[in-house]
From TrEMBL:
GO terms for molecular function: long-chain fatty acid transmembrane transporter activity; long-chain fatty acid-CoA ligase activity. This is AMP-binding enzyme C-terminal domain-containing protein. PANTHER family: LONG-CHAIN FATTY ACID TRANSPORT PROTEIN, LONG-CHAIN FATTY ACID TRANSPORT PROTEIN 2. Signal peptide: none annotated. Keywords: Ligase.
Length: 95
């Protein structure tokens, strides 16, 4: 998962991010999930706090931030929803 903060006035473009990660990263390095946050939690030494992110995982029932899933069929990052989450958990959607 990647947790990001967008620049003011910018919007998330799932197709562009998919194309960028496909062209620039090996498949194993492309994030499966992207979480858009208004504020990134950081430590006193400016490192990102990841504890809460790990604890919350990718459950759309818990996370209130916009959350996107890398959909290989649609070639885009699509909004995460309870159906996608359930399909991942039951193994019918392979990561």
């Amino acid at each position: 998962m990647a947790a990001v903060r967008l620049k003011p006035g910018e919007s998330f473009d799932g197709e562009s991010l998919y194309a960028f990660t496909r062209d620039k990263l090996p498949i194993y390095a492309a994030p499966r999930f992207v979480r858009i946050q208004n504020v990134l939690e950081i430590t006193g030494t400016f490192k990102q706090c990841k504890g809460n992110l790990v604890k919350e995982g990718f459950d759309p029932n818990i996370i209130t931030d916009p959350l996107f899933f890398r959909d290989e069929k649609k070639k885009s990052y699509v909004p995460m929803n309870p159906n996608i989450y359930a399909n991942i958990l039951d193994g019918s959607l392979n990561l």
